[in-house]
UniProtKB/TrEMBL annotation:
Organism whose genome encodes this protein: Smallanthus sonchifolius
Protein name: Uncharacterized protein
Domain of life (superkingdom): Eukaryota
Length: 342
């Protein structure tokens, strides 16, 4: 059960950061990004600090607006956002061929929405790895509520240096998470190491498409907005992800940008021209109400100073995501299924 009310949102703002330190954390986070003079090299060198600050600052906003699963999905006409997200998670489980009793790893699991859904759908045991303490605390509480705390758990660790033995898991997946890795090859090599021979790794990656022109100023601006609003050191191209998989040792079974065939645009929930009762908090009106609510909560001291600035860079991210989607230069659902050879 996700947080639903204004006071729940306020109580979670800042994550594990002390309320008095939230404003300085926002300052430090923003300075990693190009709009504030930051450079890609620093973001990659300090990715752990940058990504941790990001998720401490934004998790409550995500859960308030999006629910427990922090990702996009291809969507059919007549299908709600919630239904499409569940189907997107089930698709991953089916592609991996998950079976009861399998031991599965969720890389960059957030608060565990997909983890719980996939575990229940496939009768598997799922371990989530995440380096953010606040998200793990929240995820464990939600596991207990869902009744999956005996079969699902979390490990606090960096997915670039996982504390698991070689050949530990029957399947591995990542949902819009390994885009935070400073080095795709290094990340995929770690996943390769902990996966059993003959078994599969599947993911949805955030990528720039072939339509992205690095010399186009508007394209560069959109990319930078997505990076600051989503805690990314850089956004790789689909070709770079595919090459990194092969360099890590995987056999690529199939890959495709699932955004291309989505009957409804994946960015529709964030498009201010779209209105939906079921996803009201994501609409222009809902976001306007949230903005003013956060302003009021910060003014009366129920939300820490800096909360409005977090909401502001999330708005910037939404604008970048919609623009990137409309121009087809960005996708949050570059899918691949890869196998570790026997």
């Amino acid at each position: 059960m996700s947080k639903a009310g204004a006071f729940d949102l306020a109580s979670g703002l800042g994550g594990k950061i002390q309320n008095d330190d939230v404003l300085s954390a926002v300052d430090k986070y923003e300075k990693y990004h190009s709009d504030f003079g930051g450079v890609e090299e620093d973001r990659k060198a300090n990715y752990t600090d940058m990504v941790n600050k990001y998720y401490d600052l934004v998790t409550s906003f995500y859960e308030y607006g999006w629910g427990e699963s922090f990702h996009f999905a291809p969507r059919w006409k007549g299908e709600s956002l919630r239904e499409s997200i569940k189907r997107h998670e089930h698709f991953l489980a089916l592609q991996l061929g998950l079976k009861p009793g399998h031991k599965v790893l969720d890389v960059g699991c957030g608060i565990g929405g997909p983890l719980r859904e996939i575990a229940r759908f496939s009768s598997t045991s799922v371990m989530g790895i995440n380096n953010n303490e606040y998200q793990i605390t929240r995820g464990k509480a939600l596991n207990r509520v869902a009744g999956v705390d005996q079969t699902c758990d979390f490990t606090k660790a960096d997915f670039m240096k996982m504390p698991f033995s070689e050949n530990s898991f029957d399947a591995v997946y990542a949902i819009e998470a390994t885009c935070h890795a400073p080095d795709a090859v290094g990340c995929y090599k770690e996943i390769y190491r902990v996966l059993k021979p003959g078994q599969s790794f599947a993911a949805y990656e955030w990528c720039m498409t072939d339509a992205f022109d690095p010399n186009n100023q508007e394209h560069k601006k959109i990319k930078a907005e997505i990076e600051i609003g989503d805690g990314l050191p850089d956004i790789r191209s689909t070709r770079q992800c595919l090459a990194a998989l092969k360099e890590a040792g995987f056999e690529v079974i199939w890959e495709q940008d699932l955004a291309k065939d989505s009957p409804l645009p994946w960015y529709l929930p964030l498009d201010t021209s779209h209105f939906s009762i079921s996803s009201f908090r994501l609409t222009a009106v809902g976001r306007f109400i949230t903005k003013n609510m956060v302003m009021a909560l910060e003014y009366v001291g129920l939300a820490p100073k800096g909360s409005q600035r977090v909401q502001s860079f999330l708005e910037k991210a939404a604008e970048g995501l919609v623009a990137g989607g409309k121009k087809e230069i960005f996708t949050p659902m570059y899918f691949f299924l890869a196998r570790k050879p026997q």
